[in-house]
Specification:
The protein has 7 helices and 6 strands. It is α+β, with helices and mostly antiparallel strands. It has one domain: Methane Monooxygenase Hydroxylase, Chain G, domain 1, CATH 1.20.58. Helix 2 runs antiparallel to helix 3, helix 2 crosses helix 4 and helix 5 crosses helix 6.
Length: 222
C-alpha cells in the first residue's frame, strides 16, 4: 500500500529559507564539534510534528545525567545553544529584509531548558543568550563557514533529505573549498571527524577537539 503524501505547496522562497535554517544548525554544530546523526538533515515537512524541516544531531551536553555547574558542562551547553541559534541567524542572513515570524519557537524552548539548568534569573539568561547570539553571528560571518552553509542549503533544495555522513562531506567540501583550490594535494590529506579535519602532514599540529558523547539530540525543527 502506498503511503499518501500531501503535496509541498511552499514557495521557492520558503523552501530556501527552510534549507538555510537547517543548514545553519548543521554547519554551526559541525564547526563546534557536534556531529550529525545518520538521519541527517531534511526540509521535508513533518505534519505530525508540525515542522518544516529538521536537523538530527548529537548533543554536546548530556541531558540524562545529573547536572553540575562546572566549566566543562557550561562550554558544552553553550555549544548546543549556538547550534540552536544558528538556524534563525542563517535564515535571516539569507533574507535579511524579511521578518521571519516562524522558525525559532522550538529552538527557544530547548535553549531555555538548557540554560535554566544553570540559573533561573531571566536577566542573566537573556544576557547569556545575547552573548551566544553574537558569537554565532561571528561564526557564520566567516566566509568559509558561510560557504559551507550555502553548499548544504543548495544540496537540500535539490535532494530534500541528506543523511548525516553525506551532509558532513558537503559541509567539509564547502568549508575547505578555498584551501583545496590553492592546494589540491591536500584534499586526500584531510580526514574529518565531525568537522575536525586533520592533516596527514607530520609538521601540521593537531587541533584539540571538543569532547562528544553518544547521546542523541532531538531534531532541531521549526
Amino acid at each position: 500500500m502506498t503511503k499518501k503524501t500531501t503535496p509541498d505547496r511552499r514557495t521557492d522562497k520558503a523552501l530556501w529559507s527552510t534549507a538555510y535554517h537547517e543548514a545553519g544548525h548543521a554547519v554551526a554544530g559541525w564547526r563546534l564539534g557536534i556531529g550529525l546523526r545518520k538521519k541527517g538533515v531534511t526540509i521535508v515537512p513533518d505534519e505530525a510534528a508540525g515542522t518544516a524541516g529538521s536537523c538530527t544531531s548529537r548533543w554536546a551536553s548530556n541531558r540524562t545525567i545529573e547536572w553540575d555547574a562546572s566549566d566543562k558542562k557550561r562550554i558544552r551547553v553553550e555549544n548546543d545553544v549556538q547550534s540552536l541559534l544558528a538556524g534563525m541567524i542563517a535564515q535571516r542572513r539569507y533574507a535579511p529584509r524579511r521578518r521571519w515570524r516562524r522558525g525559532a519557537f522550538g529552538d527557544s524552548r530547548v535553549i531555555d531548558d538548557l540554560l535554566t539548568r544553570f540559573t533561573y534569573d531571566q536577566k542573566e539568561i537573556d544576557a547569556w543568550v545575547k552573548l551566544l547570539r553574537i558569537r554565532t553571528q561571528n561564526l557564520l560571518s566567516n566566509p568559509d563557514v558561510w560557504r559551507a552553509v550555502e553548499r548544504l542549503a543548495a544540496a537540500l533544495i535539490e535532494r530534500r533529505t541528506i543523511p548525516g555522513p553525506e551532509a558532513t562531506e558537503i559541509m567539509r567540501e564547502g568549508f575547505y573549498e578555498r584551501l583545496y583550490s590553492l592546494h589540491p594535494e591536500m584534499r586526500e590529506g584531510q580526514r574529518g571527524v565531525d568537522g575536525k579535519a586533520e592533516s596527514i602532514q607530520a609538521q601540521t599540529p593537531k587541533r584539540r577537539g571538543y569532547h562528544r558523547d553518544g547521546h542523541r539530540r532531538q531534531c532541531v525543527t521549526y
